[in-house]
Amino acid sequence: MITELRTLVAVARFGTFAAAGKRIGLTQAAVSGQMKRLEEKLGTELFDRTGRSATLNQTGRNVLLKAGEVLGLVDRLAEPQDRSAHSGHLRIGAISSVQPTLLKRALGPFHAAFPGFYVQILPGTSMELMDRLDSGELDLAVVIEPSFGLPQELAWHPLTRERFVLAVPKTVAPANWRRILQDHPLLRYNRHSFGGRQVQRFLEQQGIPVRDWVEVDDIPALLAMVADGLGVAVLPRAEAYEEHFLNVRVLELEEDAFFREVGVLCPRDPDAPIARFIAECRIASAPLG
Asked: pTM score, two decimals?
């Protein structure tokens, strides 16, 4: 069942059977077969299946949370019991959207395993944190996956994907998202950020003429502006900002949906504490898929 649970986590993280299979080296049919076997073993359905799509239901989400705990225990079986001698300073760079969620969930287990470590969390944009990691100022960085190649000495560990949506004022009636983008001012997600560049490419690919008049790098600030009726915005639906999304109307981009991937950048051969923190981040990211 351990194999099936790992595949379940991959499905939740990457969104579809096909995407999960591509990441873990299985065909879509093999992933589907594993999920059916897991459902048979547990005696309950984990997905709502409609046509060619499958979405985790409430039972599936509950199992996913427990799967993270089980896999964490399995991964720790071979670890030494006495870590009291381990001490040091772990410098973690992290974008703001992961600090109150994924990062917070990973810190508790890491501290329990390495109580002698002092952890310093340093904020910044993905580009800034990558530069600081490259210069040796950080031990690892939790950032958005860049669209360009990485230095050979760094390794990328994907954690979760966040889909982009269109946020509109609640006074705007639900309609075709393309029409709304054309008819309302655009509050632009800063093009110097990795996510903002994705939005720019998306708009160019769609060929949608927009009327942008402000550019901001802070997602809560953009959502507050949308809520006040100043315009609409294409943004990643990050877990950290779910309360802010309650103040606006969220429209899905349907078949044109795109995602940003959050992951850990670190030296290609990390030492034990860094590797352990990456493992904890992977477990903490499972509910976010």
From this structure: 0.71
Burial class (CB in 10 A: 0-12, 13-18, 19+), 270: middle
- Residue 266 near residue 158 (C-beta atoms within 8 A): no
Question: Residues 6 or more apart from 202 whose CB is under 8 A from it?
Answer: 164, 234, 256, 258
Q: Measured between alpha carbons, how far is residue 27 from residues 13, 50, 131 in Å?
A: 17, 20, 37
Per residue in 109-149, pLDDT (tens digit) is 999 888 999 999 999 999 999 999 988 899 999 999 988 88
Q: For residues 72 and 5, give the distance between their C-alpha atoms in angstroms, rounded to a whole number.
A: 11
pLDDT, tens digit, for every residue of 72-112? 677 666 555 554 446 899 999 999 999 999 999 999 999 98
In single-letter form, the type of residue at position 206 comes to: Q
CA neighbor of 236 nearest in space, from 275, 182, 206, 193: 193
Q: Are 117 and 83 in contact (CB under 8 A)?
A: no
Distances in Å between the alpha carbon of 175 and those of 54, 165, 200, 208, 257? 25, 14, 22, 16, 16
Closest CA to 55 of 98, 16, 112, 9: 16
